[in-house]
Amino acid sequence: MFWGNEELERRLENLIFPYQPKLLDRATYRLTIGAEIYVSPTGVGADTKLKTKKLLDPGEHFQIPAGQFALLITEESVSVPEDALAFISIRATYKFQGLVNVSGFHVDPGFRGRLIFSVFNAGPSSVHLARGEDCFHIWFADLRDHKPMGEKVGYDVIPPALVKHIADGIQSLSGLDTKINDVEKKLADRLVSVEKKQSIMWWLGTLLLGVGITLTVSQFNRSPPAPPAVAVVANPASTTVNGPVATPTSSPTTPAASTATPQASTPQGKTP
Fold it and tell me: In this structure, what is the dihedral angle of CA atoms 138, 139, 145, 149, given to the nearest 10 degrees?
């Protein structure tokens, strides 16, 4: 049978240290965050993998990023009777923010010590907490026909063996999104740089081409003019008209034959 608020009020003063009556809540008691915490690193920016446990001052705030685990030790030490079983949970206020208890939901009979909650932030944004904040529930139930098993020693601090399992960082969706955005930004910057270089090369090529054309035109303008071409006039007489070239029978420059008969000379004093 579960303990009611009267049973809790009557017995918890000897089972929870320090006990505060104001934290008694109907059929449960509210446990608070203690002095030591550990939050898994995101590996993004300054949140590197070289994180250690953190000691909190009273009332000091901290946050659990989205997609990250945390180990939270209670301020109170709990003693569970041999004939009882305790149950633990996170308060609904923090569940609505995405904080989930993944460390178990009961405390064995005979347990003595502080409780360590392993929690995971399944929400879309960071969960902000502080030392002394009452964010856990514990409630008790009687056991029938239970044989005592001896005392079970709990924790005083968060042991390193628990830390090492989550110390390498958790690849949360938000962390991956940040890394993807960083890669996209680097790629965009690289593309802009390549486009600038291509633009410079294009302008340089255009400039060199213009200089080459200018020098060629200038050299051409300075060259001496070519000699005029000699016109060749064809002989009209040598024109072939539907047959072989007609050859003149006499040269036009040949002088005409003289038709005058030379006069014979007559010796003086003789009659013909």
Answer: 20
Domain spans in the chain, listed from the N-terminal domain onward? 5-170, 171-216
pTM: 0.64
Nearest to residue 68, comparing CAs of 100, 95, 114? 100
The superfamily (CATH) of domain 5-170 is Deoxyuridine triphosphatase (dUTPase) (2.70.40.10)
Sign of the alpha-carbon torsion through 36, 40, 44, 50: positive
Higher pLDDT among residues 251 and 196, named by residue = 196
Dist. CA 13–CA 20, nearest whole Å: 8
> Could you tell me which residues are beta bridge partners of residue 142?
84
Per-residue model confidence as pLDDT tens digits over 54-76? 999 999 999 999 888 999 999 99
Contacts 24+ apart (CB under 8 A), 187-194: none
Give the rounded percent of residues in the chain with a pLDDT score beyond 70.
Answer: 74
Q: What is the 3-state secondary structure (H, E, C) of the chain?
A: CECCHHHHHHHHHHCEECCCHHHEECCEEEECEEEEEEECCCCCCCCCCCCCCEECCCCCEEEECCCCEEEEEEEEEEECCCCEEEEEEECHHHHCCCEEECCCCEECCCEEEEEEEEEEECCCCCEEEECCCCCEEEEEEECCCCCCCCCEECECCCCHHHHCCCCCCCCCHHHHHHHHHHHHHHHHHHHHHHHHHHHHHHHHHHHHHHHHHHHHHHHHHHCCCCCCCCCCCCCHHHCCCCCCCCCCCCCCCCCCCCCCCCCCCCCCCCCC
Euclidean distance between CA atoms 16 and 10, whole angstroms: 12
